TrEMBL record:
Keywords: Disulfide bond, Glycosidase, Hydrolase, Signal
Organism, scientific name: Glycine soja (Wild soybean)
Name of the protein in question: Alpha-galactosidase
GO molecular function: alpha-galactosidase activity
Signal peptide: 1-32
Domain Alpha galactosidase C-terminal: 508-584
């Protein structure tokens, strides 16, 4: 049993857990807002795909309540297709359980307590009795099955079929077959939310699920490549009018940009900014530029639906998992190394992403448990501020500790993103340099004596790691005011001096401030070799408004426990794919 295996661990951190729980309870008692901190919990998808049963779900719920609730893990989310018979597959047609109004109901074979029209009422009650909040996954729009059956639409105000313009409206009046969900074409299609009937259908769905005790909705196929601002807006308005708070999360976030996020952030509580994240090192790498861009856009902890909103880097694929698309439950452990898991957990918390554990908790091991409940990293996730990428780092080829001599480092240029109002965004121009060839050049007004940074129009590098088939000249647009606008993010390009072989591809860093004045600095080694990374304390004031510089810092590196005290540089030898996390008090 997990409780027995982790008993010693729980004793070691009981005091810290109690302090966090007291803070959590205080927040609950004074606020009914949604997501005032990044939501934290467990989601069934990474371990069960869509085939989870009531028994398996409730077993995990009990472990979340007993072992993780004290660490802020509040949500237990049933992911997609809880209404589909196991006789079908993820893109089957005709295997869903729906009521006469076209609304999804739990599959009674997997969810026996739902029989007799009870839906998730009993499951929701059991979740609430453990102290947790109950979450479900929904697909946007209307099911193809309901559309084909042409089910009537419920008017929740009258309890009768919805009528407008003297006629009864049905599923085929609101469904849009030409706009199916791209990755589940047989399952769901968009609806016309400009009609009263379309809004009535959505209202009937969310009022039903609210009556089951749902506290959290993960709404899928509605953001990123599948953006449907009409449905997002309508759902947000409906949830805002309910008597109970329900947090709204959007998924997935393929091709999501900060510009797109600004359209929805005040309507929701979390929104995915990537595709599905699985246990591959390449997937972790892809999150660094994305996390940087959304932090630079000041989207972390912005205004949201009845509370705040957070860019979501996706759940943690740790522990006992299944495979994407597999028609089976958990059968293997994560492929990520321990260093890679530390890196992912540290980046997610420094970027203040929602933390949703994806593994089957019935087989969680002590090492993984200690990682996801580490009090310092979770405090950063919940309470830190001024979170941003930190560019002032170096990769040291030779450090002579006794004499504090550092090998000379070669620098180059790196293309980054910033707000288009930032003075550093200005200075771009186009010039002819040979016959009809053209290049784009950047010259900083602060460095007139330096050679400009130039690239050929067809060789413009991307400032994001997101995969795209769009050609570079279509990504970037040179404006007459001297800014170079990125079409994916809506932000502007800027150029910085960076370490030639270290940054931005091989080493990265993030910085944030703590609620007690701490400075958090994370070093990430993305290379395949052990690397020493350093920074100077004079650069840390970037996250402390009003401070020009620090003259002394002391603290510790969290993962190793090593203490430091310095008035100059601080360093860490970081393993391949690993990270270091400094907790510093500076003056």
């Amino acid at each position: 049993m997990v409780g027995i295996e982790l008993a010693a661990t729980m004793k070691c951190i009981s005091v810290t857990s109690a302090c966090f729980l007291l803070c959590l309870c205080a927040i609950r008692s004074v606020s009914t807002q949604n997501a005032i901190m990044p939501p934290r919990g467990w989601n069934s998808y990474d371990s069960f795909n869509w085939i989870i049963s009531e028994e398996e779900y409730l077993q995990n719920v009990n472990i979340v309540s007993q072992q993780l609730l004290a660490h802020g893990y509040q949500y237990a989310v049933v992911d997609y297709l809880w209404y589909r018979s196991l006789k079908g597959d993820k893109n089957s047609l005709g295997f869903d359980v729906i009521d006469k109004w076209g609304r999804m109901l739990p599959d009674p074979e997997r969810w026996p307590s739902s029989r007799g029209g009870r839906g998730f009422t009993d499951v929701g009650n059991k979740v609430h009795r453990t102290g947790l909040k109950f979450g479900i996954h929904l697909m946007a729009g209307i099911s193809t099955q309901a559309f084909n059956n042409n089910t009537p639409i419920l008017d929740t105000q009258t309890g009768q079929p919805y009528m407008e313009s003297g006629r009864v409206w049905k599923a085929r009046d609101i469904g849009i077959p030409s706009r199916p969900c791209k990755w589940m074409s047989n399952g769901f299609m968009a609806i016309n939310t400009k009609t009263g009937a379309g809004k009535a259908f959505l209202r009937s769905i969310y009022e039903l699920y609210a009556s089951w005790g749902v506290d959290f909705v993960k709404l899928d196929c509605v953001f990123g490549d599948n953006l449907d601002l009409g449905e997002i807006t309508s759902v947000s308005e409906i949830l805002n009018g309910l008597n109970k708070p329900i947090a709204l999360s959007l998924s997935p976030g393929v091709s999501a940009t900060p510009q797109m996020a600004k359209m929805v952030s005040n309507l929701v509580n979390t929104y995915r900014v990537t595709g599905d994240d699985w246990d591959e090192w390449s997937a972790i790498l892809a999150h660094f530029n994305i996390a940087r861009d959304f932090a630079a856009s000041n989207l972390i902890g912005g205004k949201g639906l009845k509370g705040k909103s957070w860019p979501d880097l996706d759940m943690l694929p740790f522990g006992w998992l299944t495979d994407p698309g597999a028609h089976e439950g958990p059968y293997r452990f994560t492929r990520l190394t321990q260093d890679e898991q530390r890196t992912q957990m540290t980046l997610w918390c420094m970027a203040k992403s929602p933390i949703m554990y994806g593994g089957d908790l019935r087989k969680i091991d002590a090492w993984t448990y200690n990682l996801i409940t580490n009090p310092t990293i979770l405090d950063i996730n919940s309470f830190s501020s001024n979170n941003q990428e930190f560019p002032h780092i170096t990769r040291l080829n030779d450090v002579k500790t006794k004499r504090h001599n550092v090998t000379k480092v070669q620098f180059t240029y790196s293309l980054g993103l910033t707000e288009c109002t930032d003075p550093k965004a200005y200075g771009w121009s186009s010039e002819k340099y040979y016959q009809d060839l053209e290049r784009i050049c950047y010259k900083s007004p602060k460095h007139d004596q330096e050679e400009p940074f130039c690239v050929h129009k067809r060789e413009l590098p991307t400032a994001s790691s997101k995969q795209t088939s769009i050609q570079s000249e279509q990504i970037w647009k040179l404006k007459s005011n001297g800014t170079l606008v990125n079409g994916h993010s809506g932000m502007c390009a800027t150029v910085e001096h960076v370490l030639a072989e270290g940054y931005p591809n091989r080493i990265r860093s993030w910085i944030a401030t703590g609620r007690k004045g701490e400075t958090y600095v994370a070093f990430f080694n993305l290379s395949n070799e052990k690397t020493t990374i350093s920074a100077s304390i004079v650069d840390l004031a970037i996250v402390h408004p009003g401070r020009r510089k620090f003259i002394l810092c002391s603290g510790n590196e969290m993962w190793s426990g090593r203490t430091i005290r310095t008035n100059n540089m601080f360093s860490a030898e970081v393993p391949a794919h690993g990270c270091a996390l400094f907790v510093l008090q500076c003056s």
